[in-house]
Structure formats: C-alpha cells, structure tokens
Amino acid sequence: MNDKKNKVKNIFDSIAGRYDFLNHLLSFGVDHYWRRKALKMTNLGSESILLDVACGTGDFAIEANRQGVKNIIGADFSHNMLDLFKKKQNWIDGKVVQTTAEQMPFRDDSFTNIAVAFGVRNFYDVKKSFKSFHRVLKDKGKATVLEFQMPENKIFRSLYKFYFKKILPLIGGIISKNKTAYRYLPDSVEEFDEKISLVDLLNEAGFSSVTKHKLTFGIVQVVIAEK
C-alpha cells in the first residue's frame, strides 16, 4: 500500500506543471462538462461545505465555486499539485491540506459534501477512504465520485482502449516528459474497472443511498452517495 501511495505521489508531483493542459487536450475539453454535470447532479449551493479530495490543481473546486459554493477545502497528497491549486486561489477564500484520503485530519461531521474527480483509482485503500468520507460527512451529506470506467459497447470499447493505451500515453509522455505517468494512468483505469465497484464499496462504508450515472457513452461514471 505504501508503495502505491508513494508511486502515485511521485507521478503527480512530476506532471503537475502540465497536468491541466493535458487534461483538457486529451479529453478534447469534455472534462469541463464532466465536472460541471457531476456537481449539478449533487445540488450544491451557498450553504454547502465542500471537501475536494484528490483536488489536484483545483478544477473541480473552481467549478463548485461557480455553482455557488463558498466554503471549500482542497485535499491532495501531491505537494506540487497543491502549490498550483493555491496559485489559483484568487477565486475563493479556501484552504488546502496535504493528506491522503485514507487518513484525513478532519473532525467527524465536518462537511456537507465531498467531491473527488478522477482520483479514487489512485487511492491505496478505497474501502478505508470511503469509510473516512462517511466519518467526516454530516448526516444527509453527500459524496460525489467522478471517475473513468471502461465502456460496455464492444466496438466503442475497442476504440477507446486503442486511444487510451496508444495515443494518450504517446502524447502525454511527450508533452509531460514522463512516459511512465501516462502509461500508468490508462492502465490504472482498466485495472480499477475490473476490480472495483464504487457502488458496492460506498454501500459497505455505511452510506444509505448510492446512485450511479453514466456520461459520454459510458466512459465516465458519476456515483453519488448520501450519508
């Protein structure tokens, strides 16, 4: 577990400077829509107290702020990602905390909402992370998980795998100068999809209501769990 924790931290520390650019380029800009749609499904507002886990450079938090959320904390294990998040902080009076999802240093019942975009597959212990989510959420609080998955349609799945396994690592590796990182990212999606059911693990963590939605031909899932 510590091996994965440190590996992931090193990867994201190394690609932080090109992370936003590559996210938008490699998703053809659709990542903006995914974040916006996931948060709208969550029904955030000015009274929300949001913890953005695996916040990276803060794009999910920025979208939440556009939707009216004022009280936001960003949490990530990558120091370099948090530095970039802080440079964007002119948009909000927010805070950042360097921590893993599994061992978050927050009091019980602290947040109305938790959001995590494309970060759960990088957790070293997903089950422990979701229990941590449940602990720090208030009653009726919601955890919103936006994550990649493999599409079910066989033809689209094969095209998606070709892009994800061949094109994405090539472009990402050249621009970020880290080929290992952009081989890890697509490999982690396929492995995660085979082994992990977000719905099942959120139910096991104690959430009372868990719903799943598919976006963009099923390549992205939005899972919303209520405490």
SSE run = HHEHEHEEHEHHHEE
Q: Predict the CATH topology.
A: Rossmann fold
Overall body shape = globular
Largest sheet: 7 strands, mixed
Total domain count: 1
Secondary structure tally: strands: 7
What portion of residues belong to β-strands?
15-25%
Low-pLDDT runs of 5+ residues are none
Distance between the termini: 27 Å
Please list the strands of the largest sheet in the order they lie side by side.
Answer: 3-2-1-4-5-7-6
Overall pLDDT level: 89
Structural account:
The protein has 227 residues and is an alpha/beta fold. It has a single domain (2-153, 196-226), classed as Vaccinia Virus protein VP39 (Rossmann fold, 3-Layer(aba) Sandwich). It is 50% helix and 21% strand. The chain has helices at residues 2-26, 30-42, 59-66, 79-87, 126-136, 154-176, 179-195, 198-204, and strands spanning 49-53, 71-76, 95-98, 111-117, 137-148, 209-215, 220-226. Strands 3-2-1-4-5-7-6 form a seven-stranded mixed sheet, with helices on both faces. β6 (209-215) and β7 (220-226) form a beta hairpin. α6 (154-176) runs antiparallel to α7. It starts with a helix and ends with a strand.
